[in-house]
Amino acid sequence: MPELPEVENVGRHLIRKIRGYRFEKIRINRLDVLKSARTTPANREARLGVGGRLDTFHRHGKRLALEFDDGRVIEFSLGMSGHLIVEAIGSEETRDHAHLIWTVRHPRNGRTRRLIWRDPRRFGGVWAWVDMKTMIDQKWGSIGDDALQVKYESFRDVIKGTRRSIKTALLDQNLIAGIGNIYADEALHRAGIRPRRMASRLRRSETKSLHKAVQEILIEAIEAGGSTIQSFKDPEGGSGRYQSAHAVYGRSGESCHSCGAVIRSMVLNGRTTAWCSECQK
Q: Is residue 274 part of a domain?
């Protein structure tokens, strides 16, 4: 599942490619990808941005929202296989699972492109909101602070307040939003903390190291375009590069880059977890 760095890169690519473009029309090929209960045949196109110009994007954890010049908002959850694709009219490939297709036009030079939402496994979805306040009040306000923005004191309080393993706590989006399996493993390795340690028993120095490691690694991954493990692509079809920098994730049985010990793995609360028994005491 795409995590915070991958979602951030999707938003940045969209703004770079189609900011200011007017959404002229939409083709809906699969209705059940729309999760907003209040859309009707009469208002569906308007709720999905038609007539508006893309102004900016917002991200909270793994959630992405596109905001239009008139305040309307379209929210995306990439789930396991969700993709947003920008392509030129006339050069598009034949794509399966192209569930939503917007035609967008630049207001000055007339350049026309397509924005496609495809989600083969359909674990993600699309929500339409009248404005950012409504979305935050009804949706984003119920999840934890964004992992890239959370202050140390808030991070410390939620981590120390749960009696679960630290790896499990990091994956709980209601505590801290945006960290998934990849970056939890990587941050714990950098901080020198074993995944099975009880979160509430971390020492102050360990909590501070982990907070720093989380944010450092997320920033590094964003700058590298995220991690492409199976299917993640940015809206222009590019792959992330951060997977080549992974210290432990996906490297079970290989040598630790830091100490040379063999990277070990286990299943912790249903998630494959990798760590170094020497670096993570």
A: no
Residues 110 and 182 in one domain: no
Q: How far apart are CA 215 and CA 213, in angstroms?
A: 6
Q: pLDDT tens, 137-178?
A: 999 999 999 999 999 999 999 999 999 999 999 999 999 999
Question: What is the predicted pLDDT for the residue at 136?
Answer: 97
**Would residue 250 count as lying in a domain?**
no
Give residue 23's pLDDT.
Answer: 98
pTM flag (> 0.90): yes
CA–CA gap between residue 239 and residue 183 (Å, rounded): 17
User: Same domain, yes or no, for 127 and 167?
Assistant: no
Contact 65, 135 (CB under 8 A): yes
Q: Which domain holds residue 20?
A: 4-142
Measured in whole angstroms, the distance separating CA 63 from the mean position of its chain's CA atoms is 6
How many domains is the chain built from?
2
Catalytic residues: 2-3, 62, 271
Are 263 and 252 in contact, with CB atoms under 8 Å apart?
Answer: yes
Residues 163, 201 contacting (CB under 8 angstroms)? no
Which CATH number is 159's domain given?
Answer: 1.10.8.50
Helix (H, G, I), strand (E, B) or coil at 173: coil
Q: Which distant-in-sequence residues (6+ apart) come within 8 Å of 14 by Cβ?
A: 54, 57, 66, 84, 86, 115, 235
Q: Tokens for 167, please give them.
A: 């790896």
